[in-house]
């Protein structure tokens, strides 16, 4: 029967993005240990600071991994009205807040180093920064997050991707700053590059906060989906009138719809509309309310 259905909507299946996130956590944790040990061994505050910066992301990335795990394990819990799909944007929102905190820490550290410059062992620092850049670049490829500008994407994966991207950017800017300081004695480049990186990370974080926040607040779905539903209903022979139409995201790329229509014939419009909207694959749950009314 079409009226009896589960509300897990596929959230009980393990996603490849969950496995990729765990792999990246292990890689990031390993690189963090190398940078911290190298920083202590070479007496380089720059390496130690970069290692601690990577440690902050190593602590944040498990939030994304746990969000996937929680959504999967509680997918059949009926206390979640529309399943656990919104754990995904919640993980993304939390990750974005942590990114903002890290950006503020980078600004603080940058200003502190501008006021009180520190000696840097350039050769060792550049070597480890290059290794960090390679490792972070590989992590970005593993996460393979594309289409992150589309509505209804995996916000949790985007948060993990931005954490790795922040590390990659930090390593890249650190290499430029260290080379400039080594060859041109521009010691101020290191803190300035850190502040520039923090500004970019802040911009990405705010974008993710807006996207995931819109989902958590049940903002109306994308226009193309709304128009698709309107087209389906308006194409029916009796031309029912749409009184109310709400479409909102309940998981990565899956939506729920609540529709109220006026009809002037004694027909099972609820069944008819429901069967027609099944052809719109993005909508996995539909509630139909039909009012009979003579025109």
**Order of strands in the sheet with the most strands?**
1-2-3
How many helices does DSSP assign?
A: 8
- Strand tally is 3
* Amino-to-carboxy terminus distance: 33 Å
Order of helices and strands: HHHHHHHEEHE
Q: Rg from C-alpha positions?
A: 25 Å
Structure classification: mainly alpha
- Percent in helix: 55-70%
Mean of residue pLDDT values: 81
Question: What kind of sheet is the major sheet?
Answer: 3 strands, mixed
- Strand content of the residues, in percent? 5-15%
Q: Which stretches of 5+ consecutive residues score pLDDT under 50?
A: 147-151
Q: Which of globular, elongated, flat, extended, rod-shaped describes the shape?
A: elongated
Write the layout of secondary structure elements.
Blueprint: H1 16-42, H2 45-73, H3 87-115, H4 122-143, H5 155-184, H6 189-216, H7 223-234, E1 241-251, E2 254-263, H8 269-277, E3 283-292
Parallel strand pairs: 2-3
Antiparallel strand pairs: 1-2
Your description of this structure?
- This protein has 295 residues and is mainly α.
- 63% of the residues lie in helices and 11% in strands.
- It has eight helices and three strands.
- It has a three-stranded mixed β-sheet with strand order 1-2-3.
- The longest helix has 30 residues.
- It is elongated and about 85 Å long.
Short description:
With 295 residues, this protein is mostly helical. Helices cover 63% and strands 11% of the residues. It has a three-stranded mixed sheet.
């Amino acid at each position: 029967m079409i009226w009896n259905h589960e509300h897990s909507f596929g959230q009980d299946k393990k996603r490849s993005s969950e496995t990729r996130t765990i792999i990246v956590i292990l890689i990031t944790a390993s690189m963090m240990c190398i940078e911290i040990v190298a920083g202590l061994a070479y007496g380089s505050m720059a390496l130690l600071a970069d290692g601690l910066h990577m440690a902050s992301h190593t602590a944040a990335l498990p939030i994304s991994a746990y969000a996937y795990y929680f959504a999967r394990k509680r997918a059949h819990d009926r206390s979640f009205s529309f399943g656990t799909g919104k754990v995904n944007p919640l993980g993304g929102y939390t990750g974005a807040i942590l990114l903002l905190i890290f950006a503020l820490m980078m600004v603080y550290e940058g200003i502190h180093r501008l006021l009180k410059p520190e000696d840097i062992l350039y050769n060792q620092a550049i070597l480890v920064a290059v290794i960090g850049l390679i490792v972070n670049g590989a992590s970005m490829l593993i996460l393979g997050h594309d289409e992150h500008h589309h509505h209804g994407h995996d916000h949790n994966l985007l948060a993990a991707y931005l954490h790795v991207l922040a590390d990659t950017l930090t390593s890249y800017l650190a290499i430029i700053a260290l080379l400039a300081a080594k060859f041109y004695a521009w010691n101020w480049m290191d803190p300035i590059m850190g502040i520039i990186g923090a500004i970019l990370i802040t911009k990405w974080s705010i974008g993710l906060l807006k996207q995931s926040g819109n989902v958590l607040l049940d903002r109306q779905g994308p226009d193309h989906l709304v128009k698709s539903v309107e087209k389906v209903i308006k194409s029916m022979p009796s031309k029912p009138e749409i009184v109310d139409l709400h479409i909102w995201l309940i998981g990565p790329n899956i939506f729920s719809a609540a529709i109220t229509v006026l009809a002037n014939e004694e027909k099972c419009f609820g069944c008819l509309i429901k069967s027609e909207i099944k052809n719109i694959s993005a909508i996995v749950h539909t509630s139909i309310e039909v009012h009979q009314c003579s025109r």
